[in-house]
């Protein structure tokens, strides 16, 4: 029997400063400041039932700062994500292995394009 565990953590800090931009005598982006931070842990565990078969579980959180401004001049919030995964891995022979996994992946603040105008919007759905 074999057992392994990995726990890691990260603290992310992001700072953004947007200068005023003008186009054809109008302000496009007013001056803005933004800073965000996040704790992004991850943990993995593997349990080997027999030499050829292992069970595993995984958890992680994601923080992805997004630069740029929306159509109205506001800055975007960072993308965030949470992932849970469990599965089984099997080594069938020296050249072939198989994995069966179940996972749940949730994102928020994902930027999307408006299909009509092409303008980027922040999607608040999870």
Written description of the protein model:
This protein is mostly beta strands and about 130 residues long. The chain has strands at about 1-10, 10-20, 20-25, 25-30, 30-40, 40-50, 55-65, 80-90, 95-110, 110-115, 120-125. The strands form four sheets. It has a five-stranded antiparallel beta sheet, with no helix packed on it. Strands 2-5 form a two-stranded antiparallel sheet. Strand 8 (about 80-90) and strand 9 form a beta hairpin. The radius of gyration is 21 Å and the shape is elongated. The two termini are about 40 Å apart.
| Terminal CA distance | 39 Å
Helix/strand order: EEEEEEEEEEE
- DSSP strand (E) fraction? over 45%
CA-atom Rg in angstroms = 21 Å
Helix- and strand-based class? mainly beta
Q: Characterize the quaternary organization of these chains.
A: single chain
Number of strands: 11
What's the helical proportion of residues?
A: under 10%
Largest sheet: 5 strands, antiparallel
Number of helices: 0
Cross-sheet strand order for the largest sheet: 1-6-7-8-9
Q: List segments where confidence is low: pLDDT < 50 over at least 5 consecutive residues.
A: none
In one word, what is the shape? elongated
> How much is the average pLDDT?
77
């Amino acid at each position: 029997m074999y057992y392994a565990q990995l726990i890691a953590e990260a603290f992310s800090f992001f700072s953004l400063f947007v200068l005023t931009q003008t186009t054809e005598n109008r302000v496009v982006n007013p001056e803005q400041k933004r800073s965000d931070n996040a704790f992004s842990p991850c943990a993995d565990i593997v349990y080997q039932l027999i030499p050829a078969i292992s069970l595993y579980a995984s958890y992680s959180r994601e923080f992805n700062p997004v630069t740029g401004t929306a159509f109205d001049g506001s800055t975007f919030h960072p993308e965030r994500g949470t992932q849970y995964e469990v599965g089984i891995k099997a080594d069938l022979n020296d050249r072939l292995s198989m994995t069966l996994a179940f996972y749940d992946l949730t994102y928020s603040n994902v930027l999307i394009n408006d299909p009509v105008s092409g303008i980027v919007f922040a999607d608040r759905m999870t």
